[in-house]
Structures are given as structure tokens and as C-alpha cells.
Amino acid sequence: MSITDKIKTTLYELQSFYLLCLHSIFKLFKKPFYFDDLIEQMEYAGASSVLIVSLVCLFVGMALSLQLSAELSSLGLKMYTGKIVGIAVIREIGPLVTALVFIGRVGAGQTAEIGSMILGHQIDTLRVYGIDPIKKVVIPRVIASVVMLPCLTIIGDLVCIFGGYYIAVLVSNQSGSFYWSSIIRELTFQNVFSGSIKPFIFGYLISCISCYYGIRTKGGAKGLRISTTKAVVTSIVVVIAMDFILTRILLYALGFSL
Amino acid sequence: MIVFDDVWFSYGSREVLKGISFKADFHERIAVLGESGGGKTTILKLILGLIVPDKGKILIDGIDITSLKEEELIPIRRKFSIVFQEGALFDSLPVKENVAFFMRELLKLPDEEIYSRVSKLLSRVGVQEAEELMPEELSGGMHRRVAIARALAIGKTKMFLYDEPTAGLDPINSERIISLIKDLSDKENIGFMIITHVVYVAWQLCDRFIFMKDGKIIFDGNKEELISSKHPSVREFIKELFFKIKEY
Ligand SMILES: Nc1ncnc2c1ncn2[C@@H]1O[C@H](COP(=O)(O)OP(=O)(O)O)[C@@H](O)[C@H]1O
Ligand SMILES: [Mg+2]
Q1: Cβ distance of B86 and A218 shorter than 8 Å
Q2: Strand B208-213, strand B29-34: pairing
Q3: Is pLDDT larger for residue A128 or for residue B155?
Q4: Ligand 1 pocket test: which of B16, B18, B211 has the largest number of ligand atoms within 8 Å of its C-beta?
Q5: Residue B96 neighbours by CB under 8 Å, 6+ apart
């Protein structure tokens, strides 16, 4: 393929991705609404992901606290463990780790499911009978992700902080009440806001990317593998890059000086 | 009436159809034959307006559908009952809900009405016992029958479209699907277009045969013309027929 062809297809793909993103918002308030699909998707994206999110966040929290305790105690600053864990988890690690787990569990699932619906002509069947696949298939998944990722992030933050507590208090022999009071002191508007705006945006991006690659699936089992891989890789890169951009914007907007 | 007028279609840089033209009446019984990957399913998708040709016109009852919007295509699509390759049942719904799907979503009928129609349709295609099963629990033949029942659920149709209705089925189940297809059309004298790569299936069901090769139509005619065709690719393809039919 020549360079110009490549540029052309890339631009075309970007265009159809933006169109999907826009449609998923504009068609949100148009009838009909598919509540059953929404509930099913929320169940899948939310309730069934709690365990895995908790598990991952627990270990991340413990590892973080372990590293900090070791480093800070050599400086005689062990009592700052709680403060740093609090800031790091609420602002950055909680949303990011939860989003990454969400990509692997929910995003990949959405791509694979929509992809096999494409290959099995189920999406065509919907269209033949005048049912808009964006409304029936894409929007429930987007809403489920936008609603459920923030909920999961709250749970993930909590578990992460508990993991940190376990290490700080039981392994590094710090004071438990001091750990909690330093965490609570970090629950300022700025920190909580900058941590809780992210998962909404991540959820939207992950589900749009996953649905987009699902819809573009072609060419049997191999095509499904390619689109699932692409969806996961793209989501990871976009989420991490977006995290950086959002952090920069939020720090500026909330008046932190660097 | 379906009219294809010099239709070209490509997926990206891959040309699939290169100038297809034919005319077909809704009451005809047509077989579209050709090798896998020859663009047969693409023709069905074009008829339904699911994809748009690069060039050429497609008229359904005199309306050029190539420039219609998605909403404007709905009445066009309602003229057909389509059974996609492998049935395309919704695998998250049980058989009953699959057949009920469009009555619920589009016709907005009350529940009792829907379920009585569903059992009627399922017994019409001979799988009433499968009502509560999930699609993955069905055998290949039952799967196809349920798909046909779902296609019938929408009501008045002018033409059936079947994409590879017997692919992957054992000979007994193929026979059954063939006689079901015949029954459904005989009763109300509705035509169909059947896509297949098995000439014998087409022979049993159809009176008109369209052969596709490399994105072009290389043959279009009735039984006599098919048998006496001199085209080497067609002869190659219909070789197996001569073992199975005696009248020629
Ligand atoms: N969505 C798609 N994207 C790209 N290529 C496709 C797509 N669908 C089908 N093709 C290709 O187009 C050709 C014709 O496909 P199709 O009409 O399904 O053939 P047939 O039904 O005769 O087996 C095949 O080579 C197939 O690989
Ligand atoms: Mg095909």
C-alpha cells in the first residue's frame, strides 16, 4: 500500500470513529430505548467486574505502600506513607488501574461480542428489520461503561487504600489512626474531583473504541482476533495518554502550581 | 421486481462485483451459484441496501435504492424475508424470543398474541419442541428452521432470500430444509432467491440459475439452457448433476 493510500485509510477510519462517538451521544435521547440491553450490559460491565478490580487494586495498593514504607523509613519520614498513598491512589493510580482492568475485561468483551454479531450477520438482521444497531448495541454498552467505570473506580480506590493500610500498619508498624487521618485529610475537593472526572471520560473512550473495532470486524476468527487486539491496544494507549492530558488540564484548572 | 444495472462493488481495494446486471420478478425461483468468495452474499446485501454499490443502479419495484437513507430503506426491506448464512439467530436470546423479537420490537403486539404466533410459526417449520432452548443447543437443521420461522414472523413478504440454507447440514436435514423452502413458496406462490454452491439443491428448487465467477455473471438461464451450456466453468460446476438426475 502506498503512503497516500495509508493516509487516506487512516483519515477515513478516524472519521468513522468520530462519527460513531457523535452518534452514540446524539442518538441517546431518541426513541426507542433498550432498557433490557442496558441492564444486561451494566451487570456485565459493573457487578461482574467488582471482584477482579478489587483483586488487582488490593495488590497495587500493597505494593505501593510497601515501596513507600521502605523508602520513607530510611529517611525517617514513614508517617508520610498514608498521605502519599492517598494522593497517588485517589488522583492517579485508582482511576488508571481500574480503567486498565476494565479494558481487558469489558472492552475486549464488547469488541469480541459485537465482532461475532457482525460475522454472524446478527447486526445485518437488525438493520434489515429497521432496528438501529447504534441504538440497540452500541449505546447500551457506552452508557454501561460511563456509569459503571466510575463506580468501579470508587471501589478500586477504597481497596487500594485498604491494601496500603494493611502494609503500613501490620508490616511497617505505623499508627493506623494516623494513616486514616492522613488519608482523610487528602480527601479534598481538588483531589476527589480530579480523580472522579477521569473514569467518566475513560469509560466513554473505552466503550467507543471497543464498539468501533467490533463493528469493523471482518474475515472470520482471525479478523476477530485482530479487532480485539487492536481495540485493547488502542484503548490502553488512548487511556494512558488521556490520563496525562487530563492531569495536566486538571492541575492547571484546580490551581496547583508545579 | 429487482433490477441490477451494471453494479460494481468493492470492499476497500478488493473488487468483488464487476458489472452485474440482471432482472428478476418477485415470483421467480432463482438460484445464485458460484464458488465461495465469489460475491454471492454481497448481492443479497446489495438487494437489501445494507451496502451501497460503487457504481450502477439497483431498482426494487422501480425505486433506485442506492441513494436512499436508512429510514427510507425500511419499507423496501420489508418486501423480503431473509435467512442469512448460518441463520444469524441472536445467541443471547432463547428460540422463542428470537422468533418473537421483531413482533415485539416493531409490531408492538401484546404478549399472548406474540407467543401464540410464535408457537404457530415454530410448528409450521417443525421445531415446536425447541421453544425454550438457546440457539447454541440447537442442531444445525433446527437452527436453520428457527431462522426461517423468524423470517416468517414479520408477515407479508414478496420474496424469500436464503443465503446458503443447506450449508453444513447432513443430507437428511438438507432434504428437509429443501422441502420446507418449497412448501413455504408453494402455499402462497411466493418466489425466492437462494444462494448456494451446491448445484443439486438449486436444481431441486429453482427454474432459473445465475452463475457467478470472478465478480461477473457467466450464465443466466433455465434448466434446459443450464444442461446444454457450453461454458467450461459452468460445465465443471454442474458435473455432479449428471450423476444425480436421470431425466437428462
Ligand atoms: N466486510 C468485508 N470486508 C472486506 N471483505 C469482505 C467483507 N465481506 C466479504 N468480503 C470479501 O468479499 C468477497 C465476496 O464475499 P461474499 O459475497 O461473502 O462471497 P460468497 O457469499 O460468494 O462466498 C470475499 O472474498 C470476502 O472475503
Ligand atoms: Mg456467502
Answers
A1: no
A2: parallel
A3: A128
A4: B16
A5: B115, B118, B122, B131, B132
Question: In this complex, do A124 and B84 lie within 8 Å of one another by their Cβ atoms?
Answer: yes
Of the bound ligands, which one is closest to the alpha carbon of residue B14?
A: 1
In a domain, B168, yes or no: no
Contact B70 A129 (CB under 8 A): no
Q: What is the CATH number of the domain that holds B68?
A: 3.40.50.300
Q: Domain boundaries in chain A?
A: 34-249
Tens digits of residue pLDDT in A133-181: 999 999 999 999 999 999 999 999 999 999 999 999 999 888 989 999 9
B200 found inside a domain = yes
Which of A129, A131, A132 is the best residue to mutate to test the B interface, defined by the most B CB atoms within 10 Å of its own CB? A129
Asked if B153 contacts B107 with a C-beta cutoff of 8 angstroms, the reply is no
Structural domain contains residue B63: yes
Torsion angle, CA of A19/A22/A25/A28, rounded to 10 degrees?
A: -40
Which three cell numbers mark B31? 438460484
Cα of B42 vs centre of ligand 1, distance in Å, is: 7
ipTM of the complex: 0.90
Distance B11 CA to ligand 1 centre (A): 8
Number of structural domains, chain B?
Answer: 1
In a domain? residue B149: no
Q: Which residues from chain B sit within 8 angstroms of residue A40, using beta carbons?
A: 92
Could you list the residue range(s) of the whole structural domain that residue B11 is in? 1-79+192-248
Among B220, B207, B192, B204, CA closest to B27: B192
